Amino acid sequence: MKNKSNTAPLSFREKVGYGLGDMASNFYMGFFGLFLLYYYTDVFGISPSAAATMLLVTKIVDAISDPAMGLIADRTSSRWGRYRPYLLWVAIPYALLGYLLFLGPDFSATGKLIYAYVTYTLVMLAYTAINVPYSALLAVISPVSEERTKATQFRFVFASLGTLCVGAFATPLVHLLGGDDELLGFRLTIILFAVLSVLVFWITFATTRERVTPVKHDSSIRDDFSALLQNRSWVILVMTGILVVIGLIARFASIVFYLKYYLGEDGSRSFLIFDATAILTSCGLIGQLIGALMTPMLARRFEKHHLVIVMNLFHAVLLGVCYVIPREEFALITVVHSFGVMTFGVIITLLFSMYTDCAEYGEWKTGKQTAGLTVSASMFSLKFGSAVGGALPGFMLAWYGFVANEAQSEQALSGIRLMFNALPAVFFLAGGLLMVFYRIDKAAIAIVERDLHQRRSGV
Q1: What percent of the chain is predicted at pLDDT more than 70?
Q2: How far apart are CA 147 and CA 133, in angstroms?
Q3: φ and ψ at 210, to 5 degrees?
Q4: Residue 405 burial (CB < 10 Å; 0-12/13-18/19+)?
Q5: Could you report the per-residue pLDDT of 21-46, keeping only the tens digit for each?
Q6: Which of 44-48, 99-103, 131-135, 303-307 has the lowest mean pLDDT?
Q7: Mind spelling out the 3-state secondary structure of the chain?
Q8: How many CB atoms lie within 10 A of CB 82?
Q9: pLDDT, tens only, 168-184
Q10: 416 pLDDT exceeds 80?
Q11: Which is nearest to 95 in space by CA: 163, 28, 18?
């Protein structure tokens, strides 16, 4: 049975609805990226090296669960489509498991570490079960690359807003709700973000539609993986995604340590209800929001992969500049940090648009529609990048002799400074250089869209 493709522009309502799904994800993932390492070391009482090792070891599960979820989603059939049902079904388990992550039971040192392994693994499984289908939904929301780029823009605008909400209000809420009990503050704050996540995921479910209906999926798992690995540009994109996410998360996971120990910020209010952590994080995420808003305009004028190269290299240069700024110049640090994260807003918006370009290119080349597998494997790269980016600062803290909640040695302060600036710069530089080998350009996408439209409409 041939497919009918709806090439009409997506409505503003649907683009907003789709974008809200990543806001829901980032109420948690933004929280984890910014505060999880700090929570484990300074609040829950796990050593930096143990926490870092846990973040990496648990990715073994993701190596199986992410592609498995993509295969499951590609083979799902329901009255709501292939990918949308998971937004409805998984939202509540996802929210509950996120709360358990910050429950902070008073166990022994070994018990705390086991609890961290179990709860972090479970919440990442729930994230996989809801976010892989959500990401794959982009490939079937419209058959037109330009419309998918617009939807991707909305996605990362709202992703930025979600992380911005976390960055701006998490530490004030922790202090407000917990008082002197930081553990209680984290526990109560995550409840608020959990409830919001459920409601927003359900809005995404209600406002989006699947328009590209592929033929019945009857190929084998081996064939699907084989088709995916034939797509050289997808492989390059995945590797680049890993590198840039490592760079960003390494920097964000370092913010609290950099401010608390290197700049000497004590968590007191600097502006209204906001402390230095909220200010630096929020300004950076406003930059990311601006970058996401700029992306469609830039993508119309330039090749996507050329933009990714330039933005990565520019970000690396800005990190080098930030490294030499004196610690007394907090305002200048904030400005440079914000411009750096703005470039990431462009990069990440383009990457997810390019993932769906790769999915369509793969279907055009092999005849197999594997959007779920394509995006799920890509999502694993980002989750792996997030885990490595969160773990590397933990290993650096241990290497340089960091001791939680104590005055730090000059060696430890040097390590904190390096992990905030130099370490991320290396990964952004590598990501920019790798994109030189990406090959799917505007001309190729135009041919792919034309041919796929003819196939799907039976022309």
Answers
A1: 92
A2: 19
A3: -100, 115
A4: exposed
A5: 999 999 998 899 889 999 999 999 99
A6: 131-135
A7: CCCCCCCCCCCHHHHHHHHHHHHHHHHHHHHHHHHHHHHHHHHHCCCHHHHHHHHHHCHHHHHHHHHHHHHHHHCCCCCCCCCCHHHHHCHHHHHHHHHHHCCCCCCCHHHHHHHHHHHHHHHHHHHHHHHHHHHHHHHHHCCCHHHHHHHHHHHHHHHHHHHHHHHHHHHHHHHHHHCCCHHHHHHHHHHHHHHHHHHHHHHHHHHCCCCCCCCCCCCCHHHHHHHHHCCHHHHHHHHHHHHHHHHHHHHHHHHHHHHHHHCCCCCCEEECCEEHHHHHHHHHHHHHHHHHHHHHHHHHHCCHHHHHHHHHHHHHHHHHHHHHCCCCCHHHHHHHHHHHHHHHHHHHHHHHHHHHHHHHHHHHHHCCCCHHHHHHHHHHHHHHHHHHHHHHHHHHHHHCCCCCCCCCCHHHHHHHHHHHCHHHHHHHHHHHHHHHHCCCCHHHHHHHHHHHHHHHHCC
A8: 23
A9: 999 999 999 998 899 99
A10: yes
A11: 28
Do 127 and 25 form a contact (C-beta atoms < 8 A)? yes
* pLDDT band per the 50, 70, 90 thresholds, residue 2: very low
Q: Please answer whether residues 329 and 383 qualify as being in contact, where contact means their C-beta atoms are separated by less than 8 angstroms.
A: no
Asked whether the predicted pLDDT for residue 409 surpasses 60, the reply is yes
Of residues 396 and 371, more confidence is placed in 396
pLDDT of residue 193: 96
Q: What is the pLDDT of residue 146?
A: 78
pLDDT of res. 3? 44
Angle at 112 between CA 36 and CA 172, to 5 degrees: 35
Hey, CA dihedral for 113, 114, 119, 125, is it positive or negative? positive
Structure confidence at residue 377 (pLDDT): 63
Please report the domains of the chain, with CATH numbers, ordered by start residue. Answer: 12-208+220-457 (1.20.1250.20)
